[in-house]
Amino acid sequence: MEYKNLDVFVLTYNRAEYLRIMLDSLCTQTADGFNIKVLNNCSTDNTLEVIEEVKKKYPKRNITVITHEKNLGNVGNFKRSQDLAENEYTAVFADDDAINPEYIETAMNLFNRYDDLVMVSSGAEVLYNIDNNNWSKIDKSYLLYSTQNAPYFQLLVSRPNFPTCIYKTSVYKKAKYQPEKFGKLHDICFLQDIATMGATAVINGFGIRYRIHGGSDSTNYKTGPFDYQVKNVIEYLKGKMQGHFLTMPLLWNFMYFLYKWSKINLYMSWKEFNSSGVLLDNMSITKDCIFNPLYKKFFSNKLFIDLLNKFIISRANYYRRKFYHVSEE
Prior knowledge:
Order of helices and strands: EHEHEHEEHEEHEHHHEHHHHHE
Shape: globular
Structural class: alpha/beta
Number of helices: 13
Largest sheet: 10 strands, mixed
C-alpha cells in the first residue's frame, strides 16, 4: 500500500552507522510511497555518505536530507521537524532505533479506519544492540482512546510511547514541546497534549527496537529530571485529568515512580520531596497544591495504599478490556 501522505523525519547527529540501520528498516517497510526526510544536525562524520549509499541501495524509496546551517541541538532539531511538517501525517524517529517492517502499514491502516485519530504509537523493544534482522510479526491488536478523559485513561491503562509515534500533522504542529519546563520528561506532557485533541491508539506489539546505551541521556541523572521538573509534570497532568475520582492516587503513584526512576531518592527523601513546593502545603489547604495534607495522611498509610493499588489494578484491567481491539486485517 502507498502512503504518500506520510512524511517520516529521522533526526540525526554523528551516528552514521546506526543511521544506516534505521534507514534500512524504513526502506524495507511493507508500506510504500511515504517520504523519508533526514534532519542532519551538522554531523561531522560520514552521515552524508551513508545516506547516499542507502539511496543507491533503495532507489525506489524517496529519501531526502536537510542539513542545518548550524547544530540546533536535540531540542532544536525536534522543533525543526514541527516547523517543516506539512504533509497530512508525520512520524519522527531517532537515528539509532529500527522500525518493525509492518509498523508503518499497521499504524497508517488505523488512521484510515478512524477519522478522528490523531496519533498512533506502539510498544518498543529496548536493546543494547540494534539491527534490522529477524523481526517477529507485530501484534496488531491495539488500545483505542477517545478524546474524552484520554489523559486519565492513558495514565491508568497504558501511555503512548514517544519514540514510536506517528501523528496527524495538523495536531502535531499545535502540541507544545516544553523541555525547558519538564526536562527529559517533556514527552509525557507533549503526548498528553496530543491526546486532548483527538483519538489516540496504542498498538500492543513492538513497533520499534529502541537502542539504549551507557551514554544515553536517559541514564545520565546529572541532566535530570530534577525535582521541580517532576513537580511540573504532576501539576500539568492534574490539569489534564478533569478531576476523576482516581486522579489523586494515580498522580501520587506516578509521582513516586518518577521520583524513584529519576534517582531523586539519592539526594532527597520521599518525605522531603512530597512535602515541598506545589506538591504539599503543610500549613494550609490551598488551590495551588497538587496534594493537600489530607491526601498525605491517607497515602502514608501502607494498608490503605495497598488496598487502593489493588483497586486501581482492577480498574486498569477493566478498561484495558474495554479499549482493546483486534486488528481487522
